[in-house]
């Protein structure tokens, strides 16, 4: 099968990591895979993770929003011969959705059933402006296949209104290797970020410093942990973004001071996670982000700050969560006081990720959706 993925850029992010692992898994299965990004970025952010058999192309040579979107029509027209030879064009994020729409228009004009246009909507449960949701919904109705990483009331209604559209709920997956970061690499990183060797415990998280990622609420949870556990606990918040200075100021105001470590962009999350005794993720209902999956895969126990205020824990929740930063801090403090409970939790969560969130299981689910989309396009 010839598969092309479209995405704005291979930066650090959940959608980008899903694409990389999905492309690599497809290439390993013998598919011909191409990734088209709007522009190049530092290869260490993600591009370097692509399998050597995955072809990488760029729409523009410079990182510019105007060039990124302004060049789309010309790029699609210029590459139409290549695109119509693809079995699937898999669209990610807004830029991918716009390319998918242009492809569907050209396909109608030129005739034929290829390429099948499949889109993954990566924003389920996340804060999104009403006009953006309306646009995403309108574009989704024009796809040959549509995927969500979790259930959502809005998209459940959408599926009811479009029963003929092949739609699948496909949980995010990650490539789970057996190799762990070396003790030397972890020790080097500990020294780089300034966490003392005699720290009693390290609680951490990794994610972009954006309002929707709730970094200030995480700081509140950290402050509650510090109040309950004393000065021996250090806190590691990896990630860059526009709120970094605000997060640092909030940490100082909360009295975390030198115990709050903000290293910025984390290139190798698993090295940072191996420093942690407990990971605090962000959940949307029972769904956690890619970094949370990586923490569990690295044998780090995790709990989560819940973004849905009325969510109630059920059998679907493999991660304890609460919308109150104070309650998250209380739960974290309790786990830090019980090494046995933390170890047991880490093993349960690791086993769950292996069984339910591997890149292999995700790739198989997408292959099935591609087949259904082909029947729809035909």
From TrEMBL:
Gene3D superfamilies: Glycogen Phosphorylase B (3.40.50.2000). It comes from the Bacteria. SUPFAM superfamilies: UDP-Glycosyltransferase/glycogen phosphorylase. InterPro entries: Glyco_trans_4-like_N (IPR028098). Keywords: Transferase. Residues 13-174 form the Glycosyltransferase subfamily 4-like N-terminal domain. GO terms for molecular function: glycosyltransferase activity. This is Glycosyltransferase involved in cell wall bisynthesis.
């Amino acid at each position: 099968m010839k598969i092309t993925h479209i995405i704005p850029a291979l930066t650090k992010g959940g959608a980008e990591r899903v694409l990389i692992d999905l492309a690599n898994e497809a290439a390993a299965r013998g598919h011909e895979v191409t990734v088209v990004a709007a522009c190049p970025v530092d290869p260490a952010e993600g591009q370097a993770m692509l399998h050597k058999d995955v072809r990488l192309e760029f729409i523009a040579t410079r990182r510019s929003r105007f060039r990124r979107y302004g060049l789309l029509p010309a790029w699609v027209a210029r590459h139409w011969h290549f695109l119509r030879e693809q079995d699937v064009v898999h669209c990610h994020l807004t830029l991918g959705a716009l390319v998918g729409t242009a492809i569907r228009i050209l396909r109608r004009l030129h005739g034929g059933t290829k390429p099948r246009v499949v889109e993954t909507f990566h924003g389920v449960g996340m804060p999104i402006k009403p006009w953006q949701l309306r646009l995403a919904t309108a574009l989704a109705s024009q796809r040959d296949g549509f995927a969500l990483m979790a259930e959502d009331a809005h998209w459940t209604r959408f599926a009811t209104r479009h029963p003929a559209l092949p739609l699948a709920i496909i949980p995010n997956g990650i490539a789970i290797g057996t190799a762990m970061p070396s003790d030397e690499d972890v020790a080097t990183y500990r020294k780089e970020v300034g966490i003392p060797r005699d720290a009693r415990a390290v609680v951490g998280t990794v994610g972009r410093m954006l309002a929707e990622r709730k970094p200030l609420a995480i700081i509140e949870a950290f402050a509650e942990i510090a109040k309950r556990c004393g000065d021996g606990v250090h806190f590691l918040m990896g990630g860059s973004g526009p709120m970094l200075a605000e997060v640092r100021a909030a940490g100082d105001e909360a009295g975390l001071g030198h115990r709050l470590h903000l290293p910025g962009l984390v290139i190798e999350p698993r090295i940072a996670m191996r420093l942690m005794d407990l990971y605090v993720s962000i959940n949307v209902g029972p769904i956690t982000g890619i970094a949370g999956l990586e923490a569990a895969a690295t044998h780090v126990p995790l709990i989560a700050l819940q973004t849905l205020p009325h969510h109630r824990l059920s059998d679907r929740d493999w991660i304890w969560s609460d919308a109150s930063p104070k309650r998250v801090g209380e739960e974290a403090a309790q786990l830090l006081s019980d090494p046995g409970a933390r170890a047991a939790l880490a093993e349960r969560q690791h086993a769950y990720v292996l069984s339910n969130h591997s890149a292999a299981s995700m790739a198989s689910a997408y292959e099935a959706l591609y087949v259904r989309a082909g029947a729809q396009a035909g």
